[in-house]
């Protein structure tokens, strides 16, 4: 049996043979002509000439032997609803949805935005798009109308699929009015809006020339099927938007064949998920974890996937472990934020459930602190595997590999580079590899392996300029994260190098929040930084310079103004982006060239030294912030 080092070495030294072997984990309609085309760096084309279909691989190919096996278990602790679907039932639902979309004019290459809560129909819609060769774009249901509008304008969808409402913590969150507002302010309009009604919210407008009821019309297609559209491996499967520090959100474009191979291989080598077993990923399908390991990964492997609508501690902090016991969950995937929330509760909520079926718990989304890692491992008494990856990569970059070799877990570390990633820790200044224990930027020497983003949707130049231009001497992919490697080869992630805030695994650009704050009539200038938080990883904190004499108001008036301004952010970007705290200052610290010293502000907010201030224009700006924070 190979060990990790041998396996990784082969992926580096003989890419062609290595990935040809991994490609056997999915079904190809036409075999590929070559494994990799890297004639135009940094653009990599994997499994060139091969044709496949992700929906066929996730569902159709299991029908011969697993038609009556559970494919999807739906659990909503918000509505109290539970449903199960076999692979045969999934096949029927997906085909009906695909036929409905086809009759609405959706064809290969068209974009379809899925703005849905965590319900089975969201998964059916995604796989229906994959079936007919449409490019799906799942937008997290928590995003406000302005954020959704940006994604509509960039992707130009032919159809948007949505619901009347979602639910969170017992509160109904209307979706349809948000969609209507987003379409109204977007320069580009979808031809149709497909509305799934859950009978949670009825006070919405219905445009009979544009809107189309899902439940009413899907019945017309039951019992019929539509053949899958076979896509060339490099053709896009979906767009997933991720925030950046400048410009609009970036549309991460994913291919079809490379993504399928990467996920199928990861289910064996990383997650140890076997056909017939059950996987419970606690994320939302609006995030990349949900794309990869609620929808595609487990289904590609012939597993049962659990779709969960609810919180980790409602109706009780034991709910997830009750699900593990009831459905004999084998593989679980969650986030450090969720573990930190549960850590505050009594261990009895876990201990009173039989979780002996659980082989591993995987965590990703933000850096996992050592105490939380140790706590989870001690309480669950199973390997708790931290791993590091991004929307851009689609699957882990740093992880351990229990399917290859059971290497020791080091608390607080996501272990080792995943096969296929030529991962290095590089000096930000020189681009040279740093020594053991030295801080540097986590980077990847291209080509990026299968499954990673192939470009930014509609903007190849932005792909290159954003990800491959941090190191002047060569085209090298930057993760924008600091990291170190210890003397045993274990890696540790230290946080972001850019100005993106990671709130409970949700990446939000500081500029997006600043722009929302800036739009308030009383705000003159603003700086937003991500401040370390023991539960959420980071929280947004804003420092605002008010217009004219607003700052001279009484404290009670300022507090009221801060609340009003914070609410304006929630209305524009969603509650996740609302600043946890707003401080009013007379000026913001800047360099003599006018660059805002965000890192210095963040350092003070976290109780650290502000660093090099040699270019600071007016020292009193930082002194004022330090005084306010103290």
In short:
The chain is α/β, with parallel strands linked by helices.
Description:
The structure is a single chain. The strands form 10 sheets. This protein has a 7-stranded mixed sheet. A 5-stranded parallel sheet has the order 7-6-8-11-12. By secondary structure, the chain is of the alpha/beta class. The N and C termini lie far apart (58 Å). The mean pLDDT is 92. It is globular, with a radius of gyration of 24 Å. The chain is 31% helix and 25% strand. It contains 20 helices and 32 strands.
Helix content: 25-40%
Distance between the termini: 58 Å
Principal-axis shape equals globular
Q: In which order are the strands of the major sheet placed?
A: 5-4-17-16-18-19-20
DSSP summary, beta strand count: 32
The Cα radius of gyration reads 24 Å
Q: pLDDT average, as an integer? A: 92
What is the percentage of strand-forming residues? 15-25%
How many helices? The count is: 20
Contiguous low-pLDDT stretches (5 residues minimum) are none
Helix- and strand-based class? Answer: alpha/beta
**Could you describe the largest sheet, including whether it forms a barrel?**
7 strands, mixed
């Amino acid at each position: 049996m190979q060990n990790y080092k041998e396996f990784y070495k082969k992926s580096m030294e003989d890419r062609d043979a290595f990935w040809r072997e991994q490609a056997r984990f999915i079904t190809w309609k036409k075999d590929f002509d070559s494994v990799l085309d890297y004639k135009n760096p940094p653009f990599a084309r994997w499994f060139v000439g091969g044709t496949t279909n992700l929906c066929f691989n996730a569902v159709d190919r299991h029908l011969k032997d697993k038609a009556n096996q559970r494919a999807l278990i739906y659990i909503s602790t918000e509505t109290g609803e539970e449903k199960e679907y076999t692979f045969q039932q999934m096949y029927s639902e997906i085909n009906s949805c695909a036929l409905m979309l086809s009759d609405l004019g959706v064809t290969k290459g068209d974009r379809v935005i899925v703005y849905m809560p965590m319900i089975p129909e969201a998964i059916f819609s995604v796989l229906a798009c994959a079936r007919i060769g449409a490019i799906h774009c799942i937008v997290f249901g928590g995003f406000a109308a302005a954020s959704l509008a940006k994604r509509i304008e960039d992707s130009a969808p032919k159809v948007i699929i949505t619901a009347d409402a979602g639910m969170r913590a017992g509160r109904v969150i209307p979706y349809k009015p948000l969609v209507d507002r987003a379409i109204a302010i977007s320069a580009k309009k979808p031809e149709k809006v497909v509305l799934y009604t859950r009978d949670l919210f009825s006070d919405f407008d219905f445009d009979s020339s544009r809107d189309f009821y899902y439940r009413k019309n899907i019945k017309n297609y039951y019992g019929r099927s539509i053949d899958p559209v076979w896509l060339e491996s490099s053709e896009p499967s979906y767009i997933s938007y991720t925030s950046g520090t400048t410009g609009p959100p970036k549309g991460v474009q994913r291919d079809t064949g490379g993504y399928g191979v990467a996920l199928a291989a990861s289910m064996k080598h990383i997650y140890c998920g076997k056909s017939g077993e059950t996987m419970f990923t606690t994320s939302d399908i609006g995030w990349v974890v949900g794309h990869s390991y609620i929808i595609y990964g487990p289904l590609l492997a012939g597993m049962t996937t659990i779709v969960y609508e609810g919180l980790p501690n409602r109706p009780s902090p034991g709910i997830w472990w009750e699900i593990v016991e009831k459905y004999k969950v084998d593989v679980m995937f969650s986030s450090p934020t969720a573990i930190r929330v549960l850590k505050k509760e009594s261990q009895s909520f876990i201990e009173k459930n039989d979780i002996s079926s659980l082989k591993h718990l995987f965590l990703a989304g933000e850096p996992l602190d050592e105490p939380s890692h140790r706590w989870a491992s001690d309480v669950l008494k199973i390997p708790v595997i931290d791993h590091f990856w991004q929307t851009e990569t689609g699957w882990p970059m740093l992880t351990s590999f229990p399917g290859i070799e059971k290497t020791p877990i080091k608390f607080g570390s996501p272990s080792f580079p995943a096969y296929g990633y030529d991962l290095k820790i590089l000096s930000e200044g020189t681009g040279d590899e740093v020594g053991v224990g030295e801080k540097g930027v986590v980077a990847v020497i291209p080509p990026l392996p299968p499954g990673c983003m192939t470009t930014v949707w509609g903007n190849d130049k932005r792909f290159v300029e954003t990800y491959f231009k941090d190191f002047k001497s060569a085209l090298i992919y930057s993760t924008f994260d600091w990291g170190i490697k210890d003397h045993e080869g274990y890696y540790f992630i230290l946080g972001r190098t850019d100005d993106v805030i990671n709130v409970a695994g949700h990446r939000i650009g500081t500029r997006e929040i600043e722009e929302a704050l800036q739009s308030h009539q009383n705000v003159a200038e603003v700086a937003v930084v991500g401040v370390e938080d023991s539960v959420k990883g980071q929280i947004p904190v804003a420092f605002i310079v008010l217009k004219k004499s607003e700052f001279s108001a009484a404290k009670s008036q300022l507090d009221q103004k801060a609340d009003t301004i914070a609410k304006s952010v929630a209305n524009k970007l969603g509650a996740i982006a609302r600043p946890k705290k707003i401080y009013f200052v007379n000026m913001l610290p800047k360099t003599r060239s006018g660059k805002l010293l965000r890192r210095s502000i963040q350092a003070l907010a976290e109780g650290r030294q502000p660093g090099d201030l040699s270019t600071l224009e007016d020292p009193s700006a930082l002194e004022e912030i330090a005084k306010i924070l103290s």
